[in-house]
Amino acid sequence: MTELVRWMVPGLVLVAPLHLLLTRCGVTPPWPLLASAALPFGFVLHQIVRWRFEAHDNGFRSPQRAALALIIKRGNLSQRLDRGDLAYQIYETVFYQRPEWQAIRDHAHRCQDQRFLSSSVALACAAGTVLSLLGVGAQPSLALLYLLILPPIGLVVRAKSRQTVTALELFDRALVLNNWPLYEAALQLIAGRERASFSDPR
Predict the structure, then answer these.
(1) Residue 15's domain spans which residues?
(2) Which one of 92, 153, 182, 183 has the lowest number of neighbouring Cβ atoms within 10 Å?
(3) Is residue 201's pLDDT more than 60?
């Protein structure tokens, strides 16, 4: 699925309730114009989701992420202030440098794409619900239809997003657990580099 499609889908969810609100305000833009606006709307929704993810406990570098929590525990890194960043560095060193893991990387990336798409659609449904409430005076029957379908769809895709995250977390942790010697070697390599940099007289 391309980036454009991932941005377009949540934007299309938002377009119909927005048209309803604009109609109530006395503005009736043509549907082709609104449809073309779906892409930038979807892009903004996607960026909001990504921003929330990155702002909440450091995103992919979160120490609470199952795979990183395991690296922190087994590597005795819990006392380090940068434990999340260090664990992610160890994780990346192994995960992205094993050519035979290409299929695993592709699967993980697809899961992350699906997670952000589902979250963006859920956010679009929430925003569309608010717009439908604000635009109910224009076409009450159409607004009622949106109010009946958008909240359930939002709840379903939000649950799907959480389910995807949970499954990926379990998969990620199992990958680290079953290949711990590789991650331990990466930890020793990075620790050795840190010691060398500290002992450098320059």
Answers:
(1) 3-193
(2) 92
(3) no
